[in-house]
Amino acid sequence: MALRMWASSTANALKLSSSASKSHLLPAFSISRCFSSVLEGLKYANSHEWVKHDGSVATIGITDHAQDHLGEVVFVELPEEKSSVSKEKNFGAVESVKATSEILSPISGEVIEVNTKLTDSPGLINSSPYEDGWMIKVKPSNPAELETLMGSKEYTKFCEEEDAAH
User: Fold this and answer.
1) What are the E-state strand segments in the chain?
2) What three-state secondary structure class fits 73?
3) Rounded distance between C-alpha atoms, residue 116 and residue 38, angstroms
C-alpha cells in the first residue's frame, strides 16, 4: 500500500497520467510538456521562432517549445543564401512525423547563411534547437524589429498561457 501511495504521489508530482482503466493489457502514459527550455539573451516570436542577435548577424531557429510540440523532425525546407526574408512571412517548412509547419521569419533581412547540416540531419532541431539546430543567419534590414520580439520571461509566460488554453 505504501508503495502504491508513493508511486501515485510521484506520478502526480511528475504530471504522469495513466489510462489503465481504458486498457487492461498495457497502461498508456503521457508526460506533461512542461520541460521545454527558454534561453536568456534570445528574442522570441509568438510563432515560436527564436533570434540571437550578435553584431550585424541574427541567427534564427525554432524554439524548444515548438520542436517539442512538433515531435520528431524528419525534413526541413530552408531558403537559399542571398534571398530575402520578411518579418512574419514564411521562409521555410519543418516536417515532422505529426505535421508540416511553416516557419515564419521574426525579422526582415538578407539570408547570409543556411544551416546545411539540417538537410542530412533534420533531427538536430529536436536534439539541439538553440545550438546545432539553428536554421538561417540573416543580416537584418530593420534592426528595430528585434525590439518587437519577446524576451525569455515574456515568452515563457506566453507559452504557459498558450498551453493552458489548449
Assistant:
1) 16-18, 29-31, 43-44, 49-54, 57-62, 73-77, 84-85, 90-96, 100-104, 109-114, 136-140
2) strand
3) 24
In the numeric block, which cell numbers belong to residue 9? Answer: 504521489
d(CA 124, CA 40): 21
Q: How many CA atoms lie within 13 A of 155 on its CB side?
A: 26
- Identify the three-state secondary structure at position 6: helix
Identity of the amino acid at 29: F
Enter the C-alpha cell of residue 18: 495513466
113: its cell numbers:
547563411
CB 59 within 8 A of CB 134: yes
For the stretch 21-75, pLDDT in tens is 333 333 333 233 344 789 999 999 999 999 999 999 999 999 999 999 999 999 9
